[in-house]
Design brief:
globular, 32% strand, four-stranded antiparallel beta sheet, mainly beta, 78 strands
Length: 967
């Protein structure tokens, strides 16, 4: 019954998841003559005939081709609601509709006329984007057999069959008497007259066939960074119906950000009603979602008003930067040619003033969160771009305003404080608006520039430094990357440069560590030791209890463990004699299909998941008895006491109780099952149950647990409604079955993508939640500080390994901690794409620092070493548990923590199915001080119970910091 996460999301715990013809009379607008039959009769009753091709009707020159009072001939009037087209009375269709068989239809949505009159869709098909399909695309909703825009359709406003009252319109999914967000009422609909080809610049002003509407003007090409898709100009960077390319629609619930479909918005945009918008400039969502400006107002710096601020200019209903907008370069509507950019209000092929060309725009890669450091490198939501790197904080004296780092001393849109804009014509100098520059700055255009350090105006206005140079004392010189300081024209790291330790000129005779000189006999900053100051550490405390000898301090104030020795002998992973097997199904036919394990100091508990059906048969092995003897094994069916106690994933041990983690039993559930190890295994009284759903109805569907010495944390993945981030915590000092002993925190309130985890690790202070699948495989590691309040957002942090470290670093299942490093277990990042990219975090480094993270693809050692589930640490080696590398497999991978992480020689693999053909498809592991146990799940044929055991080391000893928790 194996079902996998990425294949059937939201189902099981392993389930991951038209161009309308323009009315002919419109074509004559602005023309001096229109077609007619003749021009023989005078228009003024005299001898001057009407100019060809007009006719005289009742003493006036008329166009019988277009005149509804004289349609086809004098006196032939059209009925109400009709227009005169080509000398015939026809229906007056507006709003993108055309006349088909005597009625106006939208050929983009009408299943009877899909893409053109009479082109009907097959039964049960819908019409979306002028094409017949099984479902609606582009953010449309299926209502009564049609695809409708529930944001604008008055018959289905906000939801199917929710009709607006007569006279009302639908805007933003709500009925009202007026249109919002810069749209205009045309008939019963709200339309964007800047982009609608049927109402281009005004109601019923239709563009001719083959042209599009851009900035309220009909034309053959789209401007302003938009692209023509059918008869409309769309923003391929933000349009969920055309994301990245025409017709490429995002899945329901996804948004389009930077031309890619996803769950969250990037580049400083905000998700509003399924779209990514700039709340700084969008009149429909000004400052926040749904906050629309009044008719005639514009949105500037997140505020509605009658005029633009911050150096922007009003173009139509929007405030635009005429200095950098290629669609409005220097003045409204002045578009740059294809391939050009707009720099300082002039179209050019290259960017000036330290700006970088990204697509058709010049951006400041030092500050732009959508292009941070390089084009397309968007910062994760909640972060800003500071000095060309994504960060939680602004650097260099800048201030966080929304999602950008701003110099409030010089920015006229945020002068002195965020959102405080200078009046038109004023500049910002030293944080105050005025008509002159102060503080040694000089007015350059609409800004005050400091000629001593401004790379766009170095020494004088417009004198820009090259991209790889900085402005120092009014001269362009070598630019220093983030973390480096220019000392005498040389870029140095004052954290480690002995000639400039802490600051320029601060020389050390010994190494410089964390801006402090190593060798003063005291541990400073990040120093691990200094001379004889080890902070009470010895070989045993650093490497583990089996280690003895002399710890030394290295020349860079780092611990030298070369003098430490161990009597422990570690086994060769590839030695078949070190592997043994026992089929738990021989003691009970249902003892198979497990997911995770826990060790209590004597017994190993195998966590029941599914054995052909979801089950609760906990299976236990006594490590003080023979592994191959049936008498060493026992089972207990928790579901016999409580029918809901089944379908678990993972367990945790708190020094007395073993907690079995509730996952899926045919439905996602929250029934925690607890066993008291001081009671008899086969006695009902030793077992207790508590439904976390009684604390929070959404608290169900978990995937692993961790114990920090007091609290047990349950890892959220899916609650049946969605992938979720609702971490549940139990206080072991409280009563198990009392709601007061439980608490929940939704990590998705810290970052919307922080959900869908699988496994966790505890490093002595922080609990790490392993990113798996939140609607798609992801790499957003989420961390909780156990020394801070559980319910405070500030206690939580996130880091996107896929967005910052390696694009392939996502889709993990399980983790291990070796005393310094946290290892994320690579599983699957596609449908399917099993991978072997182990991702490691150095807990001695900053969580948000890219330098604290590293990756290694173990499939480079063995092409089949991928698709793991769970890991374990034996004091020296980290083991990665084989699950499915395309088919169920038995290839164990092992890393030697005393060797270089990124070297193939530090890794070993062994296919244990070469020893026992059924030994494959495991989920999790446990270690008892000597033996490593692999937890059996499925070998491809059946859910099996074949436990694999590896004799890892002698004499036995548990790793430092062991807390009894395994995935």
């Amino acid at each position: 019954m194996e079902q996998r996460l990425v294949e059937t999301p939201l189902v099981t715990p392993f389930g991951a998841l038209a161009l309308s013809l323009a009315a002919p009379w419109l074509l004559a607008l602005g023309c001096t003559a229109v077609p007619a039959d003749s021009g023989l009769a005078p228009a003024d009753g005299g001898g001057t005939p009407c100019p060809a091709p007009l006719l005289t009707c009742a003493g006036a020159c008329v166009d019988t081709v277009l005149d509804p009072a004289n349609c086809g001939g004098c006196g032939t009037a059209c009925a109400e609601g009709e227009i005169c087209s080509a000398g015939k009375c026809v229906l007056a269709c507006t709003g993108g509709t055309i006349a088909c068989a005597g009625r106006c239809v939208d050929t983009a949505l009408d299943p009877a006329n899909c893409g053109g009159c009479g082109k009907g869709c097959a039964p049960h098909e819908l019409c979306s984007g002028s094409k017949c399909s099984a479902e609606c695309s582009g953010g449309l909703t299926a209502c009564a057999g049609k695809c409708v825009d529930s944001d604008l359709d008055p018959a289905h406003c906000g939801d199917c069959n929710h009709a607006c009252a007569p006279g009302d319109v639908c805007s933003g999914g709500k009925c009202g008497i007026a249109c919002l967000g810069g749209t205009t009422r045309c008939g019963s609909k709200c339309v964007d007259i800047d982009l609608d080809p049927a109402n281009c610049g005004g109601c019923a002003v239709a563009c001719v066939a083959g042209s599009v509407c851009s900035a309220g003007q009909c034309g053959l090409v789209c401007t302003g960074g938009t692209a023509a898709c059918g008869s409309k100009c769309v923003d391929l960077q933000l349009d969920p119906g055309n994301c990245g390319s025409c017709g490429k629609a995002c899945a329901p619930g996804d948004v389009c950000s930077a031309g890619e479909c996803g769950l969250g918005c990037a580049g400083g945009t905000t998700k509003c009603a399924g779209k990514c918008v700039d709340v700084e400039l969008d009149p429909a969502n000004c400052g926040s979602c749904g906050k629309a400006c009044a008719p005639g107002e514009i949105c500037s710096a997140g505020q509605c008003g009658l005029q633009c601020a911050g150096g922007t200019s009003k173009c139509g209903s929007k405030c635009l930067d005429l200095q950098g907008d290629p669609a409005n370069c220097g003045s409204c509507g002045k578009a740059c040619a294809q391939g050009e950019v707009c720099a300082a209000g002039q179209c050019a092929l290259v960017c000036a003033g330290g700006m970088t060309k990204c697509g058709s725009k010049c951006v400041d890669a030092q500050l732009d969160p959508a292009n941070c450091g390089s084009c397309g490198n968007a910062c994760p939501q909640g972060q800003v771009c500071a000095a060309g790197a994504c960060s939680l904080f602004c650097l260099g004296g800048t201030t966080k305003c929304g999602s950008k780092c701003i110099d409030v001393q010089l920015d006229p849109a945020n002068c002195g404080a965020c959102g405080k804009a200078c009046a038109q014509g004023e500049i910002c100098s030293a944080g105050a608006c005025g008509i002159v520059c102060a503080g040694g700055t000089t007015k350059c255009g609409s800004k005050c520039a400091d000629f001593t350090n401004d790379p766009a105006n170095c020494g004088s206005c417009g004198k820009a430094c090259a991209q790889d140079l900085a402005c120092v004392a009014g001269v362009c010189t070598a630019a220093c990357a983030q973390g480096k300081t220019n000392c005498g024209g040389k870029c140095v790291d004052t954290q480690s440069d002995p000639a400039n330790c802490g600051n320029c000129g601060g020389a050390c005779s010994d190494p410089c560590i964390a801006a402090k000189c190593c060798g003063d006999g005291k541990r400073n900053g990040a120093e691990q030791c200094d001379k004889n100051d080890f902070g009470g550490q010895d070989c045993a405390s650093v490497l583990g209890p089996e280690w003895k000898g002399d710890l030394a301090c290295g020349p860079s104030c780092k611990l030298d463990t070369s003098g430490c020795t161990s009597a422990t002998v570690y086994s060769d992973l590839t030695d078949p004699g070190k592997w043994s097997f026992f089929d738990a199904a021989t003691i009970d036919a249902d003892a198979r299909g497990f997911f995770g394990a826990a060790f209590d100091g004597r017994y190993v508990y195998f966590v029941p998941t599914e054995n052909g059906a979801y089950h609760g048969l906990v299976t236990r092995y006594d490590t003080q008895s023979a592994f191959g003897s049936k008498s060493s094994w026992a089972t207990f069916n928790a579901a016999a006491i409580n029918p809901g106690a089944k379908g678990f994933i993972g367990a945790a041990f708190d020094a007395r109780y073993v907690y079995f983690v509730p996952a899926y039993r045919g439905e996602w559930h929250g029934l925690v099952t607890r066993y008291d190890t001081q009671g008899a295994f086969d006695q009902n009284g030793s077992w207790q149950f508590f439904d976390i759903g009684s604390v929070n109805g959404a608290a169900r569907g978990f995937n692993g647990a961790a114990f920090d010495g007091r609290y047990v944390y349950f890892v959220p993945i899916n609650n049946g409604a969605t992938y979720h981030g609702l971490v549940a915590r139990h206080d072991t000092q409280g009563t198990f079955d009392q709601p007061g002993s439980w608490a929940t925190f939704d990590a998705a309130t810290v970052s919307p993508a922080a959900k869908g985890f699988s496994g966790s690790a505890f490093d002595g202070r922080y609990v790490y939640f392993v990113p798996c699948f939140n609607g798609m495989p992801h790499g957003l590691v989420t961390r909780y500080d156990t020394q801070s309040a559980f319910g405070q957002k500030s206690s939580w942090a996130t880091f996107d390994t896929a967005g910052v470290v390696n694009a392939g670093a996502k889709g993990f299942r399980g983790a291990a901690f070796d005393g310094r490093y946290v290892y994320l277990v690579p599983n699957n990042r596609g449908s399917p794409d099993p991978h072997g990219l182990v991702t490691r975090h150095d807990t001695q480094g900053a969580f948000g620092d890219k330098g604290s993270w590293a990756t290694f693809d173990v499939s480079m050692v063995n092409v089949g070493a991928k698709g793991f589930v769970g890991a374990a640490f034996d004091g020296r080696y980290v083991y990665f548990v084989p699950h499915d590398n395309g088919s169920y497999d038995g290839i164990v991978a092992r890393y030697d923590t005393l060797a270089a992480f990124d070297q193939k020689g530090s890794w070993a693999t062994f296919d244990i199915s070469s020893v026992n053909a059924g030994a494959k498809g495991f989920d999790g592991a446990a270690f008892d001080g000597r033996y490593l146990y692999l937890v059996p799940y499925s070998n491809g044929s059946i859910n099996h119970g074949l436990v694999a055991r590896f004799d890892a080391k002698t004499p036995p000893s548990m790793p430092k910091g062991y807390n009894g928790s395994f995935f």
